Amino acid sequence: MSEDLETAARAAAAALGAGRGTAADCTTLGWYRAVSGDQAGALALFERALQMNPREVEAMVGLAGLHRAAGRLRDAALRCDAALAIAPGYAEAWLERAFVMAAGGVMDEAKRCYVEVIALAPTHAGQRAAAHAGLAAIAARDGEAEAGRHHARAALTDDPANTAAITALATIELEAGEAQAARRLVEPALARMPEPSPERMELLHALGDACNRLRDPAAAFAAYARAKQDFAVIHAATFAGRPPHREFIEGVAAGLAAMDLSGRPVGAPPPPNPHIFVLGYPRSGNTLLENVLASLPGTAAIEEMPTLREADLAFLAEPDGLPRFAALDEAALAPYRSAYWQRAGQALGRDPAGTTLVDMDPLKSIRLPLIARLFPAAKVLLVRRDPRDVVWSCFRTSFALSNAAMDFTTLEGAARHYDALMRLTELALARLPLSVLEVPYHRMVQDFDVMTREICQFVGLAWTDDLRRFDRTARARGVSTASARQVRRGLFDGTRQWEPYGEYLAPVMPILQPWIEKLGYAT
C-alpha cells in the first residue's frame, strides 16, 4: 500500500467523521479498505459514494473490482460499462473491464480493453504494465509465443516485479519444453511474496507445472497444494457459511429421487437440427469433444454458459423444486425452453436456429433432470475418464472462481465432489428418459476416428475429415476453459497422469475405487 493512499485515507476519514465528507472521500477511504482486505467496508463506502454522487466513476470501478473478486462478473461488467459511459477516456475503467472479461473467458474483448488502456495511459507506467501483462497472459494461453514475450517484456520494463508477466513468460517456456527455465523465472518471484494473493497462486501453479515436467512430483505436489491453499484463503469470505458444492449436488439427487415420473407428457417437438449436450465432469475431455464437434460444418458450440439459469433458479435452488418441476405441463415448461434458447443465442451472438447446437458444460450433468424434460429429443454425450486422472487434474488445475472450485482445493474435497456427481449421474441414467452415449476419454485420444464416427452416428451428423482438425477450430474460435492449451496442441493422450502422484491420492482411493471399477479402469 502506498503512503499517499494511507495519508489520503486518513484525511478522508477525518472529513467523513466531521460530517463534511464528500463522495470522493468515501471513494478514497473505500480504496484504502479494499487494499487493506476489508471488502465489506470497501463495498459500503463505494455504495455510499454513489449515493452522494451517482457519477463517481472511481467508486464504480472500485465496486467492479469487488464484484469481480467475488465472482459476480455480470455485476462487475455493468459497473465498468456505467463508468465508461460517463468517462470513456478513463483508463482505469478499461483496465478493470479487461480483468472482468479475462476472468469470464471473453478473451477477444479483454484484449480490446487492454489495448485501449495502453492507448489512453501512455505515461502511466502501472496501468501500462498491467495492460501489457494481460496481453502477455492471453498470448501465452493462445500459444502466441512471440507476442507473449513482447508484451511480457514491455510489462517488466515498467514493472520488474509484475507477476502476471512473469507467469506468462513461464508458461511460454513450458510450452517450448523449457521447464527448468520456467522454474528459474518463478521461484525468485515467489520468494518475494510471503502472503497469499491471486498473483502468488498463479505463480505456484506455474511452478507446479514446471516441477511436473521435470519429473519432481514431491515439489510439484507441494506447489499445487500451496496454490490451492491460497485460493481457499483468498475466497474464504465469499464462501463463509456456505456448504460444500457437493451438498448442493446431493440435494439435487434427493429431489430427483422424489420426482414423480409417471404419466409424462409427450414433450416438445424435436428441433430440426441435432441438439447436443456434452457433459461429464471437469477435466474429463469435454472441451476436446466440444471442439471436435465444432469443427463440423453447420455446428455451433458454446462452453460453460448458464443456458439453463431460469430453470436452475426456479427448480434446483429449493428442496421441493424438482417434484414441482415434474408436475408442470407443457404450457408451463415453454417459458423455460424459450429462456434457454435466448441465452444460447446470446452466448453465440446470433440466433441458433438452423444450426446444430453443442452445449458443453461438464457440471450441467447436475441439470440432467431439467434437460430430460425440457429437451427430450436432445442427445447427451457423457464423457468419462479415469477417476484418478480426473480428481488429480481438478486439484492441480487453476480454475476461475465458481461454486465448485472451493471443493477442488483439497484432494478429499475433489474426490467427494466427484463421487456426489457420479451418484447423481447414475441416478439420472436409471430414472430419466435420456438419449445418452458414454464417451471414454481414452478411446477418444487413442482411437480417434473410430470413436468420433460412433459419436457422429449417435447424434445424427455426417463424419468428415474436418473432425481431425479440431486444434485449428480451437485456435480460431478461442477456448475459455482451463483446457485451452491442451486442446490447441492437438490430440494429446492425458491418460495415467495420476501415477506419479499415487501416494498423495492414496487417502482418497476408498472414495474413488468404486468408480474406478465401474468405469473399467481397475486394470
Account of the 3D structure:
The N and C termini lie far apart (55 Å). The chain has 523 residues and is mostly helical. The chain is 63% helix and 5% strand.
Question: Quick one: overall form?
Answer: globular
Structural class label: mainly alpha
Radius of gyration, whole Å: 24 Å
The main pleated sheet reads as: 5 strands, parallel
Q: Tell me the helix content.
A: 55-70%
Strand order in the sheet with the most strands: 2-3-1-4-5
Low-confidence stretches: none
Strand content: 5-15%
Number of separate domains: 2
In CATH terms, what is the fold-level topology of the largest domain?
A: Rossmann fold
Work out the number of β strands: 5
CATH superfamily of the largest domain: P-loop containing nucleotide triphosphate hydrolases
Chain-averaged pLDDT: 92
Structure summary:
The chain is mainly alpha-helical.
Topology:
Layout: H1 3-17, H2 23-36, H3 39-52, H4 57-69, H5 73-86, H6 91-103, H7 107-120, H8 125-141, H9 145-158, H10 163-175, H11 179-191, H12 198-213, H13 217-234, H14 236-239, H15 245-258, E1 275-279, H16 286-294, E2 299-303, H17 309-315, H18 321-326, H19 330-348, E3 356-360, H20 368-374, E4 379-384, H21 387-396, H22 411-431, E5 435-440, H23 441-446, H24 448-459, H25 470-477, H26 484-488, H27 502-505, H28 509-518
Parallel strand pairs: 1-3, 1-4, 2-3, 4-5
Helix pairs in contact: 1-2, 2-3, 2-4, 3-4, 4-5, 4-6, 5-6, 6-7, 6-8, 7-8, 8-9, 8-10, 9-10, 10-11, 10-12, 11-12, 12-13, 15-22, 16-25, 21-22
